[in-house]
Design brief:
The protein is an alpha+beta fold. It is built from two helices and three strands, in the order βββαα. Bound molecules: zinc ion (2 copies).
C-alpha cells in the first residue's frame, strides 16, 4: 500500500526497471529500499511486506 495515499488504499506496483509507482500515479520511489523507508516512516507494519519483495529480487 502507498504510504502517501492515506484517504484510500492504493496499491504500489513495481516496474520492470525496479522503480515503484502507486496505483494512482501520484507517488513513486526509485527503488524498493526508498519505498521501504517511506513505509517505515508512515507505518511500521508495512515494512514486513516490502522485506519479502526485497528477498525475491
Ligand atoms: Zn500514492
Ligand atoms: Zn495513490
Amino acid at each position: 500500500m502507498c504510504p502517501d495515499c492515506k484517504d484510500k488504499p492504493c496499491k504500489v506496483n513495481e516496474q520492470p526497471n525496479g522503480k515503484l509507482v502507486c496505483e494512482c500515479g501520484k507517488h513513486s520511489w526509485p527503488n524498493s529500499g526508498v519505498y521501504a523507508e517511506a513505509c517505515r516512516k508512515a507505518n511500521l507494519t508495512i515494512v514486513k511486506t516490502v522485506h519479502n519483495w526485497t528477498q525475491s529480487l
